[in-house]
Amino acid sequence: MDPRPTELSIIEQVLGDTRDRLRAAPQIPATQELVARVTAFERRIARWAEASPAAGEAASTLEKVLALNIDLMRAGLDGDDLAGPV
Predict the structure, then answer these.
(1) Residue ranges of the domains in the chain?
(2) Tell me, what's the pLDDT at 75?
């Protein structure tokens, strides 16, 4: 079963946005841990091109990727505070 195009699109967009924010973040252990998690998710969805995910895997991955983005914000690494005053 192929992941729904909407789920895959959202996953890819969130991962891309998260990676962009992490590039701007200070390179501290929290940043490195989040980068490792993003990389793991990117590898997982890359494998979907060769073998479709198991039933429910795309939905589960979407939930985990959104939680990762929340973890980024909670760690204060979301980029909003890193740019300085506007």
Answers:
(1) 5-74
(2) 84
Selection from 29, 72, 67, 64 nearest residue 45 by Cα: 64
**Three-class SS state of 76:** coil
- Dihedral sign, Cα of residue 77, residue 68, residue 47, residue 9: negative
Per-residue tokens: 11: 């996953």
Q: What is the pLDDT of residues 48-71, one digit of tens each?
A: 988 888 889 999 999 999 999 999
Tokens of 55: 């039933």
Low-confidence ranges of the chain (pLDDT < 70): 1-4, 78-86
Q: What is the distance between the alpha carbons of residues 41 and 7, in angstroms, rounded to a whole number?
A: 14
